[in-house]
Specification:
Layout (H helix, E strand, L loop, with lengths): L8 H13 L7 E6 L5 H15 L5 E4 L1 H4 L6 H15 L1 E2 L15 E2 L5 E2 L6 E8 L3 E8 L3
Parallel strand pairs: 1-2, 1-6, 2-4
Antiparallel strand pairs: 3-5, 6-7
Length: 144
């Protein structure tokens, strides 16, 4: 009930719908704030979904839960605010507590220090997933 589909297909669908709503392609994405609950099933399914959608396009990924905890029903809203601030300040925060990365996940996880937003990038995604297969991805674009 709490684990996502191992193939990440619900997450893939949500990512693709967010890109379509933003009139964007995977190559347009400069940053992803991942749901990343630090559970083996969840993180593997999310990583697989990200690799499926983004392919060889390496996107800096960060996760907020290491710094703020899992806020349950409020997690998606707070993480969306973090993503908006990331775009606004053009600075990707590091993933706190991510000290032993799993190389098999194949993601560019921002750790240690904040990283500048990629040059020319203006689009960031915020992933949120819930029990029973609820998946939501919001797309935020810099303006002005």
């Amino acid at each position: 009930m709490t684990a996502p589909r191992p193939d990440g297909q619900g997450i893939v669908s949500a990512l693709r719908k967010a890109l379509a709503d933003a009139a964007a392609q995977p190559a347009d994405v400069a940053h992803i704030n991942a749901h990343a609950t630090s559970t083996p099933h969840g993180d593997r399914a999310e990583a697989l979904a990200l690799r499926t959608v983004f392919g060889k396009h390496t996107v800096p990924v960060t996760a907020s839960k290491g710094a703020i905890g899992h806020l349950q029903g409020a997690a998606g809203g707070v993480e969306a605010v973090v993503t908006v601030l990331t775009v606004h300040h053009r600075l990707i925060p590091p993933t706190v507590g991510h000290e032993d990365p799993d190389d098999d996940l194949g993601l560019d996880v921002v750790t240690g220090n904040a990283r500048p937003f990629p040059e020319g990038g203006d689009l960031a995604l915020s992933d949120s997933f819930g029990f029973g297969g609820h998946n939501a991805v919001l797309a935020f674009r810099a303006t002005g």
